[in-house]
Amino acid sequence: MQLPTHGRFPYRPWRGRPQESWPGGRKLAVYLGVNLEHFAFGEGLGAELAPGAGSGAGPQPDVLNYAWRDYGNRVGGWRLLELLDELSLPCTVLLNTAMYDHAPELVAAHRARGDEMAGHGRTNSERQSTLPEPEEAALIAESTARMRAEEGVAPRGWLSPWIAESRVTPDLLQEAGYGYSLNWCHDDQPVWKRTRGGRILSIPYPQEANDIPAIIARKDGARAFAELVQQDFRERLRQVRDGIPQVMGIALHPYIVGQPHRIRALRRTLAEVAARREEVWLTTAGAVFDHVTTQWAEDSIP
Question: Are 28 and 278 in contact (CB under 8 A)?
Fold first, then answer.
C-alpha cells in the first residue's frame, strides 16, 4: 500500500551514516531556542496555564492566560537572560516581530549579547498554516522585512508560530531567502528538504526537550522538565561516542521557564551543559547551518 507522502526528503536510516563532526572534532552540538512571543489581547491563539476562553471555558478577554504569557516579556525573559549570561551560553532567539513594538528592550538585550535572531512570524496568536498561499507569503515577507529593518540583516532561519506548516510553507520560505527551517522534529541531524525552487535545510527542533509539550501538555513539574533535559543531554553524550554527530535543541519560553521555581531547577541542568563545553559545541541554529553547508561533505547530509 502506497501512503501519501510529503516528497520533501527520502528515508535514511540512522545506522551507517557518515561520521562527520562539529568544530574542534566535537560530536554533539547543543543550541538553545529562546521563544520571544507576544499575543493579542482578547483574541487569537495562546498557550494556557489554566482552561480559558480558548478552551471554551469562558468569554474573552482571557485575562488570566494573557497576563501569564506577558509575564515572560516583563519578568521571565530578563531572568532567563541573567542565567544565559551567568553561564556564558549563546542562544537562537525565535522572534515574533510584534515584540519590536511590545517589548523592544528585551529584544535589544538579546541583540547586545550577539544572539542569533530567527524568524517566528508576527505573533503566536495566529497560525500561518490556515492562510491561503498569497496571505502566507505576505506574512513571511512582512516578518522578514521587519527583522531586516531592525537587525540590519534578514534572518536565515524560521520557526513557524505553533510549528504549523501549510503544504507550501517550505517552498515559500526558500523563495523568501531562508536557508533553514526548524519546523520538523524528524531527525537528530540536519536534513535537506526539497522545495519547488531549490532546497532548505531542516535543523532539528525539539518536541521533547521543550517546555511547552513537557510542562503545559504533559503537566511535568519544574524538576521533571530539568531532569528530562539533563538525561537527554547525558544520553546523547554517551551515544556520540559511536561517531555519528547529533544536534540537540532545547526550546524555552520565558513565560514558562522564567518562573522562579522553574528557572531554579533549569539552572542546575544548564550549568551541567555549560561545564562540558570542551566536549560539546554550544552554538546557535544559524552556526549549525553554516557549518553543515560549508564543512560537511554533500553526501553526508541525510
Answer: no
237 CA to centre of own chain = 21
116-157 per-position pLDDT tens digit: 999 999 999 999 999 999 999 999 999 999 999 999 999 999
Please say whether the beta carbons of 180 and 155 come within 8 A.
no
Residue range 202-243, pLDDT digits in tens = 999 999 999 999 999 999 999 999 999 999 999 999 999 888
163-170 mean pLDDT: 97
| Rounded distance between C-alpha atoms, residue 27 and residue 19, angstroms | 9
Between CA 267 and CA 80 the distance in angstroms is 9
| Contact indicator for 83, 263 with CB cutoff of 8 Å | yes
Our CA dihedral for 276, 280, 283, 286, rounded to 10 degrees, sits at -170
Q: How far apart are CA 218 and CA 262, in angstroms?
A: 15
The C-alpha angle 203, 255, 90, rounded to 5 degrees, equals: 45
Question: Which residue matches cell numbers 541531524?
Answer: 189
Instruction: Specify which residues 210 forms β-bridges with.
Output: 251
